[in-house]
Amino acid sequence: MLDENIGNQPEILKKWASISAENRGFIIKNHSCFDLLKILPSEEEFSSFICLISEGTAGSKESFKVLLDLQKAFFASQLCKNAASDNNTISGEIFRNDVPGSSGLNSNFVTVINEDTKSPSSSKIHGAVKTSEQVIRHNATVYVHDVPSNVSKKRFKKVLQFAGKFDSVSMCPEDSAADVVFDNVYSANNLLRYNFEQGPLMIDNHPLILEPGFEDDVWSSFNFLENQVVISNIPATVSKTKLRKLFSFGGRIQSIVICPEDFYAVITFCKVSSADNVRELYENGRDFIVDGMPLHVFCDDFSDSDNLSHSGSSDLSSEEEFDENMLYIGNIPTNVNEDELKQMFSGFGRITELDLKRHGKNSFYAFITFQNVRSAYSVLQSSYKKNFVYGETILIIQKVK
Known about the structure:
The chain is an alpha+beta fold. The protein is about 35% helix and about 25% strand.
């Protein structure tokens, strides 16, 4: 057993936690006995420690929730410290602003926009000027979440009007949301880019969450999968390391891709269940915050056939008619082993069997069996949208005849 006084010494606590999963589980179960917010004051120290104690302990939903609660408490305390340190903050619409001598992206200083002051000038918004080199894939709609229920439509529009002319603004107080449609895509980009580079955009000291809108064909072309968590409202200071530290307790992360031009990031987990846990907890009110920015987690079902685009023709039936949980994988390079092949497809669901066989001298083929039909269906759906590649070799994915 760890003495409480000794346990509140960070180096001793870290060393004790690294000894065994049992010790790490003890810390999670008895986290209230340790003053973690005080002894681990920096974001890097705290995130690193959370990552450490989650190793081998985040399998249960109870531990998973405790780890999230700890992070939520830490970032909430950081926001309170930031607010307290700024003597210039008063009631009104608040925007982060550049500070001379700093990058402006991580600043605790704010510019207050009140009834008698002007909104941020579009000339100060990076990327606000339309250029021939600018590639914008989102449309003119911005979905705004976490809008305070007492904010009027007139006041809400005043906060956002600096970005450009509105086509329409629809408020939905019961969902704390609003749909903002600008008269052109560049105005929407102004708002999204301002929030990305100088956010979070705030009203009544409350951060708003912005989600870019995409046309159906563009959204489908992103090829999102069930084991992926898609995040919007990311700050310019976001990094793969920060996202990995924030979400690694959910399970093993295969890859992280940040798309600043589209204002979102994609975290690919090795298991679908890990991504499902993140989405479920977000829907139940859990907050994920990076550098003061509350992240938005897309909770759409990316495996739905209506959300998938198909290149070329196929004889793939609907999921209801698809009753085979085994697939044929062909054209496999001879330097691939069973573990590597399993890792490539494990994100779609649990694999119960993989039978790897040699095909001539230059390639292998395999029969891969999933625990459920839905996983096999998702793999085949995905193969019509994009190639499964190992090295420079394109694998062949087919139904078993």
